[in-house]
Design a protein that fits this description.
Largest sheet of chain A: 6 strands, mixed
Shape of chain B: elongated
Number of domains of chain A: 2
Number of domains of chain B: 2
CATH class of the largest domain in chain B: Alpha Beta
Number of strands of chain A: 11
Number of helices of chain B: 9
CATH topology of the largest domain in chain A: Rossmann fold
Pfam family, one (chain B): Gtr1_RagA
Helix content of chain B: 40-55%
Number of helices of chain A: 11
CATH architecture of the largest domain in chain A: 3-Layer(aba) Sandwich
Radius of gyration of chain B: 20 Å
GO cellular component, one term (chain B): fungal-type vacuole membrane
CATH superfamily of the largest domain in chain A: P-loop containing nucleotide triphosphate hydrolases
Helix content of chain A: 40-55%
Largest sheet of chain B: 5 strands, antiparallel
Order of helices and strands of chain A: HHEHEEEHEHEHHEEHHEEEHH
Family (chain B): Belongs to the GTR/RAG GTP-binding protein family.
Strand order of the largest sheet of chain A: 2-3-1-4-5-6
Subunit structure (chain B): Component of the GSE complex.
Distance between the termini of chain B: 37 Å
Oligomer: heterodimer
Order of helices and strands of chain B: HEEHHEHEHEHHEEHEEEH
Structural class of chain A: alpha/beta
CATH superfamily of the largest domain in chain B: P-loop containing nucleotide triphosphate hydrolases
Organism (chain B): Mycena maculata
Strand order of the largest sheet of chain B: 7-6-10-9-8
Number of strands of chain B: 10
Chain lengths: 359, 306
């Protein structure tokens, strides 16, 4: 049984790598580091391969660096490293990477992981001061609320002390408390992703315009498969709303295959499945394509909100909270706004794709 | 009924109280019998007797309280822990329970749930083995010539959809007009050009009836949809309802236009929800909603609500 989940086995990975190098797309590289059994592979599998969190228990230890390509608004390459890797054995200079995620098991307060993290921070400081260093204090579900906060604080303190000792305290780094069993991992990884998307301000502007014109209090642009949000509007992110959108997306993702009928495949199925080919950008064509959409109405009291879902590109989906009155009464206008938003996002994605060369 | 710690109260809290599986660890042991009245489909009231499973209680059910416990039983649900060490004792109690049923309510349907299936690796094999063992025991318990109405065995787990499958078929036996509802749903499905129409109970989201009832096997090959779709739908909607309740919202209705199909989920009557699945891409969801509104009266009449 364990072998079924050994998605890190070299055979499957190599094909991804070779295809990746053939395409020649400049991928944004993320380094995933941490002690043995701290949860690096689990994070990768849960986010990008939609492995159920309960199954992470069966994952095998990663023995070699495995590189995972993932396409969202920007093409990513995630390097899942074994626990014993050091700056020297990594086999690639740190300057290649855009972000470094260091995973620490929350119960691991001892010196080893922290001194290793400090080594990497110092190396990054020397090689690549632009590198975003993010520390995921992971497996938060293993501890009670009080211990959790206490350990989280202690780990932060120790890292700071170590860096002070080494006179390297200017290097910026962030801490996140994460767990694969709730939405904290998605939220933390989304925040890391935001730092890597250069077109983020434009996406945010588009979302702001959409929200203002659709009287929507909150809208997210999600990566549909991984449920990471790529961008959101200017209003503050309330994690309850984020979680709800996340759950909504996972429900819709699960519904799709449930009522799929092999005998009566609808004509529209062909459309969103195929990605536009690189030599045929033809933005006019996008208008008559079919984009899935959904709406769930919630009503606690009089006003009520509707959660809308519109696929924007094959990877990205717009989730917005719209007052039910607006959705029922002026649905056409909201959808009109979605079309404009979609065109904007697609243009940004096209530019991004062009800049990176390849499809 | 079932041995102590086999998961009776856990499943009750999951199905009838909308609690997530992760919270069942907090439940304590049930002392004696907890009686629950669950209003199901408005006029049908389920009287749920959650019986504590410790030996002392079991002994008293079978002796002093025998007539109270086994009187007017519609359905006996006996839960077996798949990883129990005391299968022998469990089976003995089970045979005694069958005995009690035969004496006081011989028409009762019996459902055996082999629970906590999530703990075993080889699900299919283990379940088949258990099922066979239980069947032998049932025959032994019944004695020659006396056959109880029906005994059905399910493998279940609170962590996946199998529990909904089991409970949907349990409530199905209790709904008096299930066949009538199915017939009307079929007519409704035709009116909507729908592939399938499914009626759910509102609070539990258990399947009450569908437009192609399982009793007509010739209807099945028409569309080879995922066989576990009903249970999975129940599970998904329940999970989403739970996430809604965390932000103090209440789930009301859902419509989807996915690449594979269109679907509308909306209130049918005040205690049921209807899910319409359409594969024809030319059908608008707004039209489906209109149809639901028009059909509402009829279905209220069918349930005797009007």
């Amino acid at each position: 049984m364990t072998s079924t989940y050994g998605a890190t086995s070299s055979a499957s990975k190599r094909t991804v790598n070779s295809r990746n190098s053939v395409n020649g797309v400049a991928r944004t590289k993320i380094l995933l580091l941490g002690q043995r059994r701290s949860g690096k592979t689990s994070i990768n599998e849960v986010l990008f391969k939609s492995l159920p969190p309960k199954q992470t228990f069966y994952l095998e230890t990663t023995m070699r660096i495995s590189k995972h390509a993932y396409d969202t608004v920007i093409p990513l390459e995630i390097w899942d490293c074994p626990g014993n890797i050091t700056v020297d054995t990594l086999g690639a200079p740190l300057s290649q990477f855009s972000a470094l995620i260091f995973v620490i098991d929350i119960r691991d307060l001892y010196k080893q992981p922290i001194s290793k993290l400090v080594e990497f921070i110092i190396a990054a400081y020397n090689d690549n001061p632009q590198l975003h260093v993010e520390v995921f204090v992971h497996k938060a579900e293993k501890l009670q609320e009080d211990d959790k906060i206490e350990n989280f604080r202690q780990i932060q303190e120790r890292v700071q002390d170590h860096l002070l000792e080494r006179e390297c305290e200017q290097m910026p780094y962030n801490f996140h408390l994460t767990s694969v069993y709730d939405h904290s991992l998605h939220e933390a990884f989304s925040k890391v992703l935001h730092k890597l998307i250069h077109s983020l301000p434009f996406l945010e502007d588009l979302l702001n315009v959409f929200c203002a014109n659709s009287s929507s209090p909150k809208a997210f642009l999600f990566d549909a498969a991984s449920r990471l949000y790529v961008a959101t509007d200017a209003s503050p992110v309330d994690s309850a709303t984020h979680n709800l959108c996340c759950d909504y997306l996972s429900m819709l993702n699960a519904f799709g295959p449930l009522y799929q009928s092999p005998t009566s495949t609808p004509a529209r199925l062909r459309i969103p499945a195929a990605e536009p080919s690189p030599d045929d950008p033809a933005p006019t064509e996008t208008k008559d394509r079919f984009y899935p959409s959904a709406a769930a109405s919630l009503h606690p009291s009089a006003p009520g909100t509707t959660l809308t879902y519109h696929l924007i590109t094959p990877q990205l989906a717009l989730l917005a909270l719209v007052p039910t009155g607006v959705w029922d009464g002026r649905r056409g206008l909201v959808e009109y706004n979605v079309v404009f938003f979609r065109e904007g996002v697609q243009e940004i994605c096209d530019v991004e794709r062009e800049a990176r060369g390849g499809g | 009924m079932g041995a102590s710690g086999s998961g009776k109260t856990s499943m009750r809290s999951l199905i009838f109280s909308n609690n997530p599986a992760s919270l069942t660890a907090r439940l304590g042991a049930t002392i004696d019998v907890e009686q629950n009245h669950v209003r199901f489909l408005g006029d049908l009231i389920l009287n749920l007797w959650d019986c504590g499973g410790q030996d002392a209680f079991m002994d008293s059910y079978l002796t002093t309280q025998r007539s109270t416990i086994f009187q007017h039983v519609g359905v006996l649900i006996y839960v077996f822990d798949v990883e129990t060490n005391e299968m022998h004792k469990d089976l003995e109690y089970y045979r005694d329970c069958l005995d009690g049923l035969r004496q006081f309510s011989p028409d009762a349907a019996v459902f055996l749930l082999v629970h906590k299936m999530d703990l075993v690796r080889d699900k299919g094999g283990t379940f088949e083995r258990k099922k066979k063992e239980l069947q032998e025991q049932t025959e032994k318990g019944q004695g020659p010539g006396q056959v109880l109405t029906s005994v059905t065995t399910f493998g279940t787990s609170i962590y996946d959809e199998s529990l909904y499958r089991a409970w949907s078929s349990i409530v199905h036996t209790l709904i008096p007009n299930a066949a009538v509802l199915s017939k009307h749903l079929t007519i409704f499905a035709e009116a909507c050009s729908a592939t399938e129409v499914i009626l759910f109970e509102r609070t539990t989201f258990l399947v009450i009836a569908t437009s192609n009832p399982p009793s007509e096997p010739e209807a099945e090959p028409r569309n080879d949809l995922e066989p576990t779709r009903y249970e999975r739908t129940s599970e998904l909607i329940k999970a989403f309802k739970h996430s809604c309740s965390r932000v103090r919202e209440e789930f009301h209705a859902l419509e989807m236009e996915l690449p594979e199909f269109s679907a509308v989920l909306d209130e049918m009557t005040k205690n049921t929800y209807v899910l319409i699945i359409v594969h024809d891409p030319t059908i608008e969801t707004a039209a489906l909603r209109l149809n639901i509104r028009m059909a509402r009266r009829k279905f209220e009449e069918l349930q005797g609500l009007a």
